[in-house]
Structure formats: structure tokens, C-alpha cells
Design brief:
Protein name: SulP family inorganic anion transporter
Strand content: 5-15%
Membrane topology: Multi-pass membrane protein
InterPro entries: SLC26A/SulP_dom, SLC26A/SulP_fam
Strand order of the largest sheet: 3-4-5-6-7
Number of helices: 21
Subcellular location: Membrane
Radius of gyration: 29 Å
Order of helices and strands: HHEHHHHHHHHHHHEHHHHHHEEHEHEE
Main location: membrane
Largest sheet: 5 strands, mixed
Length: 492
């Protein structure tokens, strides 16, 4: 026991994480438009491959609701056969970024963009899974899913089968939400698992007319990408999806790592090593034709809360997933699809950062605007372009704030006109600077004080020199420029 001093705590934690992971792995796979077993394969790889590698000791990896939307879009555009090669290339890109020590730079991504990304994903997941809960076909676009909800509800109410299916999904959400108020002994069973088991039992007992998970067998769904799938790499469209997979999976994993670090007092995450671990896991998932993986905050927080002390808990959870997938695949065929849809509706709801939006709106409305624009862009356009829009807006906001400049003109009516510039003089503020200078009297000497500037870029410096030459050429005294305690005459 001295070799594994925390084996008991890690063993018990691994059971809890396994029970949390099963319904989520299956639900994410079904929502992504791929066989349910592929979700379990990704969970197994997350435990046995990523779980063994250094990086973050307590966070757990597997298929995530946050990638559901983009995976569904990729499967719809390129087919299930191409999914493996896309995930493989994304994994190799993550490996490269980790080896180049880019992992730590993901901490520099605007939190508002990440929260907006999760919010947009959550909205699309909720809308899409409501259709799945009712047994209806969802529109292809995120905006179409949301605008079509009133009609979907009308169709569900008018049809007996759809209404029953929707009730099973709604009942699943209710069980998950209310499970937290159950006695402590009962809450030892994860709410998502309890909801799925109860929905499965009710569907079987009352012979409800709802669709259940289609099972193909573990070996039947594991299909390494072939030559045809690699042929997709010749087209530029697939590379956008590869980059999106890699960047979004990396951002979600590393932000999850930061959150998990706040939950325990153990070793801190080594971001570059964690990036390599995620890349290795996704590379293996790609070779098996499985779903992409990220670190998942729900499973990770459950791991910490259950008392895990080392990485042994997440590795063991991968072992239990493997045994379940190999020995009990028949159990998947009993699970009603609306129950899985309900689990994902709840997961999507938890992705929407209601408190953060309210807090940002009170103190940082610019950041709140970035969050909302990112979320709306993801819903209205797509995942990748929505995130790019959010990043672009964050960069523009930062550039604007970084170029904050205060211009003060002191004119006493006689003698030289004094102009004081303070802050950051960049090309973004150049029009304002020149407007102020060119409005000065041309027949009066000017003293230009630049000592209050923290930064003066080349464009502004050149423009100020040219203005000083023009102003001095009118016959007035040369413009006196003061910068960092030095006084010079320009245009003499």
C-alpha cells in the first residue's frame, strides 16, 4: 500500500467519475450524430492515454458537450468516415502547440470570448436537443433551431408519440435538477445517471413509444480512417474544421484546468504538458475514428469532490468504461434517446454563464458586449466564425483602450500655445491628434509637451514631425517639443 498511499480514495473517486461519465459519453455521441459507442471510446482514451500523462493530475478528459455542435456540423459536411482524420490532425496540431510551449498562451485569451463561446454552444445544444427530445428533426443552423422552437412545440403537442417523447426528456431534466435536493445518501449516485436509469425503467415498464439508442458493438464502430478519409485533407474546407477542433478543444481544456486548480491544493497544472497530453489523446481518438476529447469540468469537479488524490482515479475510470463497453453493450440499447437529450439540455444550460454576464454588465460593459456578440455570432453563423468574431472584437477593444490618449490645449491669449499629450499615442488616435493640432492658430508659437506619453508609435512620431515642420514654415517660432524632460526645437 505504500506504493499507492491514496489507492482507496482514488478507487472510490474513479467509480463516481465513471458513473458520471457514462450518460455524458453516450449522450454527446448521439447528439453529435455518431454511434453511441464512439463516445465511450473517447472516454476510454481520455482515461487510459491522457490520464496517464503529466499535465493536470486531477482533471478528467473525454467527449464534451462543448464540442457537440462543431462535431455535428463536421459529420454533416464531411461524413463520419472523415471524422477520424479531422480529429487526428487536430491532435497532431495540439501536440505541436504543446511542444512549442504555446499552451500557456491560451491563458491570454479573453475570458469574455471563452464565456461567450460556451454560452453560444449552450444555446445551440439546448435548442437542438429539444427537437431530439421530441423525436423531431432539427433545422441545420443554430438560428433555425431557435426560431423553429415554437413550431416544434406545436408539432410535439399535436402528436401522441412526440408528446410522450418530450415528456420523457422533460422528466429527465426535472430529475437531474431535483436530485440535488435528495438525501445525502441518495445523492451518492450521480443525478445524470439516476435520471437515465429512471427514464429507461419507465420506458420499459410502460412500453412507451420512444426511440432508444442504436447499438453497433464496440469493434463495429472503431474504424481507423482510410485513404479516402485522408483524401479530404486536399480540400481547404476541412482544415478550417481541424483548426477549430484544435483551438476550441485546447481552450476548453486549459480553462477547465485553471478552474480545477482552484478546487484542490495539489500540484498545479503544467499547461504545455497538458496540451501535449490532450494532443496525444486526440491523436489516438483520431486513429480509432472516435470523437474529439477535451478536459471536462463536470467530470473533473466530480473527481475532486469525490476525494481523488492522484491521476490513478481518472485512469481507473477509463478502465471501468472499457469493461462496461466490452461487457454490457446491450445496456445502451435500453436507453431512451429523449433521456440523453434531457441530460444534454441540462449540460447546455450549465454552459450559459448567467452570473458572469450580470457581473460584467455591472462593472465592464465592454466585456459583456464581447460575450454577448460572441454567443450571438455562434448561434447566427457557426462555431468557428463566431469565435473569430469574438476574438476580433476583443482585440479591437484592447487596442482601443491601449491607445487611450488625453489632449490638453492651454491658450492664455498671449504667448505660446501649450499642448500636452498624455497616455498612448498610436495610429488609432492619430486623426484626433492632428485635428487638435491643425486647429491651433497658425501665427502663434506652439510648445508641444510629450513627456506624459507612455508610448509614441512610429506613425504618430512621423506625423508630429511633419506637422511641426508645416507649422514652423509659416514664419512663426519653431515648435518646441518636450519629451521625457528634453526640449528640442522642430522645423528650425
Amino acid at each position: 500500500m505504500s506504493t499507492f498511499p491514496h489507492l482507496r480514495q482514488d478507487f472510490l473517486a474513479s467509480i463516481v467519475v465513471f458513473l458520471v461519465a457514462v450518460p455524458l459519453c453516450v449522450g454527446v455521441a448521439v447528439a453529435s450524430g455518431v454511434p453511441a459507442e464512439l463516445g465511450l471510446v473517447t472516454g476510454i482514451v481520455g482515461g487510459l492515454v491522457t490520464g496517464l500523462m503529466p499535465g493536470s493530475s486531477l482533471q478528467v478528459s473525454g467527449p464534451a458537450a462543448g464540442l457537440t455542435v462543431i462535431v455535428f456540423e463536421a459529420v454533416g459536411e464531411f461524413g463520419v468516415g472523415a471524422l477520424g482524420v479531422i480529429v487526428l490532425m487536430a491532435g497532431l496540431l495540439q501536440l505541436a502547440m504543446g511542444c512549442l510551449r504555446i499552451g500557456r498562451w491560451f491563458r491570454a485569451i479573453s475570458v469574455s470570448v471563452v464565456e461567450g463561446m460556451l454560452c453560444g454552444i449552450g444555446l445551440v445544444i439546448i435548442a437542438g436537443q429539444i427537437y431530439a427530445a421530441a423525436g423531431l428533426d432539427a433545422p441545420a443552423t443554430g438560428l433555425g433551431k431557435i426560431t423553429g422552437l415554437p413550431g416544434a412545440f406545436a408539432d410535439a403537442v399535436s402528436g401522441t408519440g412526440e408528446a410522450v417523447s418530450l415528456l420523457v426528456g422533460a422528466g429527465t431534466v426535472a430529475v437531474v435538477v431535483l436530485w440535488r435536493k435528495a438525501p445525502k445518501a441518495v445523492r451518492s449516485v450521480p443525478g445524470a445517471l439516476a435520471a437515465v436509469v429512471l427514464a429507461t425503467a419507465a420506458t420499459a415498464a410502460f412500453e412507451l413509444p420512444v426511440a432508444t439508442v442504436r447499438v453497433e458493438g464496440l469493434l463495429g464502430v472503431v474504424q481507423p480512417p482510410g485513404a479516402e478519409a485522408f483524401g479530404e485533407l486536399a480540400g481547404p474546407a476541412v482544415w478550417g474544421t481541424v483548426v477549430a477542433f484544435a483551438l476550441i478543444a485546447s481552450a476548453e481544456s486549459l480553462f477547465s484546468a485553471a478552474a480545477v486548480d482552484r478546487l484542490h491544493d495539489g500540484p498545479r497544472t503544467q499547461y504545455d504538458k497538458e496540451m501535449v497530453a490532450q494532443g496525444a489523446g486526440n491523436t489516438v481518438c483520431g486513429l480509432l475514428g472516435a470523437l474529439p476529447m477535451t478536459a471536462v469540468i463536470v467530470r473533473s469537479s466530480a473527481n475532486v469532490a469525490a476525494g481523488a488524490r492522484t491521476k490513478a482515479s481518472r485512469v481507473l475510470h477509463g478502465v471501468w468504461l472499457l469493461l462496461f463497453a466490452a461487457a454490457m453493450p446491450w445496456a445502451l440499447a435500453l436507453i431512451p434517446i429523449p433521456a440523453l437529450a434531457g441530460i444534454l439540455v441540462h449540460a447546455g444550460w450549465k454552459l450559459i454563464p448567467f452570473r458572469q454576464i450580470a457581473s460584467l454588465w455591472r462593472g465592464h460593459r465592454g466585456e459583456a458586449l464581447i460575450l454577448v456578440v460572441t454567443a450571438v455570432s455562434i448561434v447566427a453563423v457557426n462555431m468557428f466564425e463566431g469565435v473569430l468574431i469574438g476574438l476580433g472584437l476583443a482585440v479591437a477593444k484592447t487596442a482601443w483602450e491601449a491607445s487611450h490618449l488625453r489632449t490638453e490645449v492651454v491658450d492664455k491669449g498671449a504667448g505660446p500655445v501649450q499642448v500636452h499629450l498624455a497616455g498612448n499615442a498610436t495610429f488609432l488616435r492619430l486623426p484626433k491628434i492632428l485635428d487638435s493640432l491643425e486647429s491651433l492658430p497658425r501665427d502663434r508659437p506652439v510648445e508641444l509637451d510629450l513627456s506624459g506619453l507612455h508610448h509614441l508609435d512610429h506613425a504618430c512620431r512621423t506625423a508630429l514631425e511633419h506637422w511641426a515642420e508645416r507649422h514652423s514654415a509659416t514664419g512663426t517660432e519653431p515648435v518646441k517639443v518636450t519629451a521625457a524632460g528634453k526640449e528640442t526645437a522642430a522645423g528650425a
